[in-house]
Design goal:
It comes from Catellatospora methionotrophica. This is PadR family transcriptional regulator. Helices cover 56% and strands 12% of the residues. It has 119 residues and is mainly alpha-helical. The chain has a three-stranded antiparallel beta sheet with strand order 1-3-2. Helix 1 packs antiparallel against helix 4 and helix 2 crosses helix 3. The longest helix is centred in the last third of the chain and has 28 residues.
Length: 119
């Protein structure tokens, strides 16, 4: 039996795959300065340039980060509709953001070096 390796060409980087790996860090980062409710956090991420991010991904990430103990929540009444559930970064979340940022910066530095060398 013979095995042959096939060569495929990747035409572009799939940003949705990249987002899966860094969405937790991105959400923690947008909550660093200001608390926010779900849609507000989604809007801030999109404004920052993560335009391909899905609503469900952000809401799932918020639930996961809360369950992991990185966020606290509180409810603010709204005169225009349902009450809004706000998310806030707590001390554990700030520690996670710092650690994740360190890992990201190291990874990005390595990738930048590799990309410069291949250019």
């Amino acid at each position: 039996m013979q095995y042959f390796a096939s060569h495929t060409t990747v035409l572009s980087v799939d940003t949705t795959q990249l987002l899966k790996g860094v969405l937790d860090l991105a959400v923690l980062a947008v909550l660093r300065e200001d608390d926010g409710y779900g849609y507000d956090i989604l809007r801030r991420l999109r404004t920052a340039g993560l335009t391909e991010i899905g609503d469900a991904s952000v809401y799932g990430t918020l639930r996961r980060l809360f369950a992991a103990g990185y966020l606290t929540t509180y409810v603010v009444p709204s005169e225009e509709g349902p009450h809004r559930k706000y998310y806030a970064l707590n001390p554990a979340g700030r520690t996670q953001l710092k650690q994740g940022g360190d890992v990201w910066n190291g990874f990005a530095s390595t990738m930048n070096t590799l990309l410069r060398e291949s250019a």
